[in-house]
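Hi everyone,

Forwarding the result from last night's run.
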Amino acid sequence: MVWSDAHVVVGRPTAVATLKGALTIYAGTLASPKNLIVGSDILYYGGTTGTDVVGLIGSDEVYLSPSAVGTDRVLNVHGAILSQQGILGVGRDCGTSGNVITPSGSTLNTIGGIAKRSTGDLSSHFSTRNYNFDSRLEALRPPFFPLLRDAWSYGAWREVTVPCWAEGSCP
């Protein structure tokens, strides 16, 4: 496992990050949340049939760098992705709200799993998104990657009176 108490960028735009073995990369802590940024294609050395596996965890959020999309306008990410406090989204230039530089007509291909707290903005940056679950993750977990339950719950709940128009009983 690789841990950093800072924002972490995985990969460089000019090179594919190829993983051989098993690795989890964790940015920040729950007390000091940090972002993990995907900076290039992330692929398994042995493809998706071997024992290579990676976990990408942002204790705050996980971002895809717009410059990670190559001249082919495709970004490939293999691995289990966990955004503990926020979204899986696309970063802006220099991490600000500046102009987005993701090439139009880009494609995002993921093989693995994605867990996040809330919806990101991938659909506005990638016209094609192919999300594929890596069934090997059912038995092959990245080192120290947390087990996530298969259930969800409400953060708040209250009952409201059903409006008459919904019941069809309005005068």
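The helical segments are 164-167.

Cheers,
N.
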